[in-house]
Amino acid sequence: MSNCSNRKSFVDPGRYFKYIALLAILAICTAFLAACGSSSSSSTSGSPSSGNKGPFLIGVSNGFVDSEWRSQMISDLQSANAQHMKQGLTKDLVIVSSDVDVQGQAQQIRNLINRGVNAIIVDPNSPSALNPVIKEATDKGIVVISVDQEVTAPSAVNVVINQTDWAKISMQWLAQQLNGKGNIVIINGIAGAPANEARYNGVKQILSQYPNIKVLNVVNANWDEATGQQKMAAILASQPNIDGIWSQDGMAQGALQAIIAANPGKWPIMVGEARVGYLQLWHQVIQTRPNFTSFGVDNPPGAGASGLRVALDLLQSKHIKSGALQGAANNTLYIPIPGQVDASNFATEYDQVKNLPAAYALDGIITQQQADSFFS
After folding, report:
1. Are 38 and 267 in contact (CB under 8 A)?
2. Is the peptide bond before 55 cis (omega within 30 degrees of 0)?
3. For residue 134, what is the domain's CATH number?
4. Are residues 104 and 149 in the same domain?
5. 57 near 85, Cβ under 8 Å?
6. What is the pLDDT of residues 59-101, one digit of tens each?
């Protein structure tokens, strides 16, 4: 488990809220770009690089906007890119962001290819369905970096935390808190999404070591706080004997709100999330329930900015070290999980972030030195 040395606040709160508004504009622009995607790219402002010093044109494909985490990821990318622009390494980002299915995200990527970008940062909607369009990009010399979630495309490079390990950390904590026995509920994200499936696999790996922990229910709340609250409320009404709850980030705050509203005779032990809103609610609960405990593992939106660092190293003709690539498809650079929040450090962590927006996720980004360490 990594330490917290990479944790950092990257988002100015005022700029963060402005960016949420910008996402709506970007969604409209995406439709326009789709209409123009098949036209000539004579108006492009960059072309695939063969290893120069820039400035490089970087595209961003994001196929899911109903998420504050994704908003923070893109805001992190913009902040990091502003620094790279000052260094003469990059131009303004070309961001294509809207709620689309896999086919829609493939079109996003084709639009970016037509814009003549040198690299594409993609947060993928599928681990494998985008592989053909990713190959189209890399065949043209475009660097493709997948962040947040892994893809299996052999020509892409994933720059992600290990989502399976991320889930195993909190599931192990819950199993230990339960002394290896009890009834639990699992609240997952979007079924089929790469990160969701990797996390659930991690949970199942830990559960296989604890045969006396029984899973009463598994639901998908789509990484949405309101849906998490609705699902948890329904479960509490039908399952009165819940000892523990394992939830992914984005939904735990809603689940805890449902517990507060139901106020069961015995409160379940709960895996939470490392987001300000959840920490604020945790702080509120312990004012009247000092024995309440929870746990959250950082899932850094700064992974996008970390991926940008790696992309720029590749564009400058650096070569990934032998053995650095890992994962099932041997195309993944795993970056550290910045930290976690539990009862032992809650007061310190809460004090550092309590005045930030509720949607803000505790963050982290690899340093340039860490990015360079992947290269020979």
Report:
1. no
2. yes
3. 3.40.50.2300
4. yes
5. no
6. 999 998 878 899 999 999 999 999 999 999 999 999 998 889 9
CA-to-CA separations, 122 to 14, 127, 221, 334, 371, in angstroms, rounded: 25, 11, 23, 16, 18
User: What was the pLDDT predicted at 36?
Assistant: 42
What pTM was computed for the model?
Answer: 0.84
Sheet of 340-341: strand order equals 213-220, 182-188, 244-247, 269-271, 294-297, 340-341
What type of residue is 257?
Answer: Q
**Bridge partners (DSSP) listed for residue 60:** 95, 121
Examine the domain organization and report whether 101 and 131 are in the same domain: yes
Contact criterion met (CB below 8 Å) for 6 and 367: yes
* CB atoms inside a 10 Å sphere around CB 367: 13
Q: Tokens 């290819």 sit at which residue?
A: 113
Q: Is 143 part of any domain?
A: yes
- My answer on whether 249 and 198 are in the same domain is yes
Q: CA 32 → CA 99, 205, 219, 362, distances in Å?
A: 14, 45, 36, 34
Report CA-CA distances (Å) from 118 to 79, 131, 209, 312.
Answer: 19, 18, 46, 9
Task: For 111-122, write each residue's pLDDT tens digit.
Answer: 999 999 999 999
Task: Name the phi and psi angles at 216, rounded to 5.
Answer: -80, -35
Asked whether residue 144 falls in the same domain as residue 168, the answer is: no
In the block, tokens 């037509």 appear at 114
β-pairing, 269-271 with 244-247? parallel
Tokens of 222: 């789509």
* CB-based contact 161:73 (threshold 8 Å): no
> What range does the domain containing 234 cover?
163-297
